[in-house]
DUF1906 domain-containing protein
Amino acid sequence: MRRAVAAYALPLILLAGCGGASGTDSPDATPPEPSSQGAAPTQPADTALPSPTARDELADLAERAASQVPDQPEDAIPRAAAPVLGADISWPQCPRGLGIPEKRTLGAPMPIPEARFVVIGLTNGPGFYPNPCLAEQTAWVRERRLMAAAYAVASYPDDTTVAQHGATGPYDGSSRLGALQNTGYQQALFNVASMRNAGLATPIVWIDVEPVPDFEWSADPVANSAVVDGLARGYVDAGYAIGVYSTPALWDGVVGGFELGVPEWRAAGQTSRAEAESRCGADWVIQGGAGVLGQWVEAGRDQNITCADVHLDLGSWFHQY
């Protein structure tokens, strides 16, 4: 099922401070208690995703959110002369032994000194579990006056989590897919709360869609798409631009032909900078968006390079500390 969601291809929202829009729709500053996760439910698939109640208002929501927070100064991030090298980190870089049993932290190395930006992961693997050293990693980036952005792994909720969150949100929670969308929406708000609590500012949240060991996606791409659809709406409603991190094969394996049409951060695995740069091209489109970052693994670290002319407009993609 090829389904474009043009409403999510929104102008980027530049944020300052802790990010996001203020007001009654914003989540609390303290993340809620994590719910238990387990095997994915196996209900039969519905035939199509229900439309959210305010799909046509997404662009207006984003514009209002942008007007409620101050932009970064125009000269906050000067244009770079060439593509910019960066990194991404998350729970594996936390001191060894923290986190949930399935995702114990590893004490992995932090970015190389040449990295000018860092994209920080918000989760300890699956949704509703925060990165256990998010505040410390944010402080590490801030102290070095690097550019920052955020990403969050998307994951499929178990029955208990759907029962807890499925009725709360902008979708019809009385249907199975609507409940999954609402649960994805709440997963996004949980991550936003974690991010704000840690003081991490970013204009964008990258939605990481790939298999999550021990927290597997369902066998139904329509149900999986409902979760991702809700996640996307949650971040947009909170005042953030969104993008997708994945590869064409991983994306297709989780959500099939579902498309958001948003910017893309494209993974090249344990290859090289040259291969990561090649992923910026049209041959590696994931879900209908333009390539913004290419990622590869080298020397035990995730490294990243900006695509095309992104280095000329860094303020649209990063917060400068």
